[in-house]
Specification:
- The complex is a heterodimer.
- By secondary structure, chain A is mainly alpha-helical.
- Chain A has two helices and no strands.
- Chain B is mainly alpha-helical.
- Chain B has six helices and no strands.
- Chain B is elongated, with a radius of gyration of 16 Å.
- The mean pLDDT of chain B is 93.
- Classes of the chains: A mainly alpha, B mainly alpha.
- At the A-B interface, α1 of A face α3 and α6 of B.
Amino acid sequence: MSSHLLLMALFSLFVSAVFATLMQDDPREQVRLGARMFGGFMLVGLVLGWVLFFFPL
Amino acid sequence: MPAAQPTQPIAKIAFICAAAWAVPGAGHVLQGRTFKGVVFLVALTLMFACGLWLEGQLFPFEFSQPLVALEAFADIGIGIPYFAAHALGVDAGRVVAATYEYGNVFTIVAGLLNMLVVLDACDIARGRK
């Protein structure tokens, strides 16, 4: 798999699942927190990607 | 505020921590938190396996290179899957692979997250949660 986006999504999924399960006890709250964390990971990754796009590195 | 009294003997707490390290999620399953334990087992083992599939490397304990030693310490945090990977010969990685660094990140973070899971299991055993 060479898609950076899919790899970022896969990594975010695993980390979000673990942190949501650690931080909440109720399954519904775990799913809700996990979804929010996953969305946050993806959003920040995309934003940072575009910010860094304009730097000539 | 007085410290919380442990609800279980120290030896049992140590056993739970060791089990939690060896098998991701085992510490939670042993203490009746089966759903959490299964989630940790599936997520962390899959994450570690993805790292190896992405041709990441399991680093050796080379103390002359501190960062490599730290990566090795993080890798071994996953427990038995680390030794299984060595036994199966899939620990070498491939430096020239396009996904090599991704693989390393997956294996390292899987190990570090399992360390967090061990700490959580220890807190549960000590009656803090």
